[in-house]
Amino acid sequence: MSILRFIRLCSLALTVIVSPSSFGWTKQNVNLYYPEIRDAKGNVVPLTPQVSKVFQYFEREAGLKFSVIYLPWKRAQLEVMKGNGIIYGFSKTSERLELYRFSLPVVHLPVWAISYGPENARLAELKDLKAKLVTASVGITHGIEYDRARNTIFTVQEDLLTYQERFRKLISRRSDIIFVPFANRVGREEIVQAINQKVVPGFNDPELSGRTFNVSLNPIFLDTIHFASSKTHQQYTMDKIDAAIERGAKNGSLSKLLRDY
Fold it and tell me: Is the entire prediction scored with pTM above 0.90?
């Protein structure tokens, strides 16, 4: 074993035992790519408080300093493949597993199908989506099972539209389904209420006013959300993130953080 590898292994072992913040170590600067989502006015939607807290947690527990960079999802993935940083919010697919190193799961998210019209009111499981047209952001996926089902059970039409525009596509019958992940703690009735009493009215769109959208009777997929890097860059960064996840799982700090995710 080379001396450099020995030093790296010793450093990693120490991060599993204690948080780097305990010693005030200098933090490692890392570009962190995150999907660029725009509102109806074309403005980039900022990080939610929940995601901000996740980033702060890993900065503290893994000894990192993130420079968050918003990019379209496909472009963000290319930057990561070049070794220019890591990405967050990444779901696994068969293709991605060959190209990227994934962290341990940070969070598990049930993925629900949002639809419109009586013909879609009783969607309960994957087979009910046979021959349906799904509208989704370019480069977005919801895990391996989603990846296997796309273009076999349902068809995916990728675009750069806002969520407001996608809801319009539902009512005009130009698409059938929007997939939306929600936290484990959120029940179906809460989701129905959130979509129809908060999200849609919040668009202030006369075309959507008074419309009621369906939520599938059950989650269609269970997605896992990860950090990821290329397989040839940022390996020490990913080691530290995995160590922080393992430590947080053992002492309960990560699950406590994710209660409001």
Answer: no
Structural contact between residues 136 and 180, judged by C-beta atoms closer than 8 angstroms: no
Which domains does the chain show, CATH number per domain?
3-107+224-260 (3.40.190.10), 109-222 (3.40.190.10)
Identify the CA nearest to 42 among candidates 204, 209, 165: 165
Q: What is the token pair recorded at 41?
A: 């006015």
| Residue whose pair of structure tokens reads 């989650």 in the numeric block | 219
pLDDT given for residue 96 in this prediction: 94
Confidence of residue 38 (pLDDT cuts 50, 70, 90): confident
Is 135 in contact with 166 (CB distance < 8 Å)?
A: yes
Exposure pattern of 150-188 as b/e (b: 16+ CB <10 Å)?
beebbebeeeebbbbebbbbbeeeebbbbbbbbbeeeee
Contact in structure between 109 and 130 (CB atoms under 8 Å): no
CA angle 190, 195, 201 (to 5 degrees): 130
> Hey, is 232 helix, strand or coil?
coil
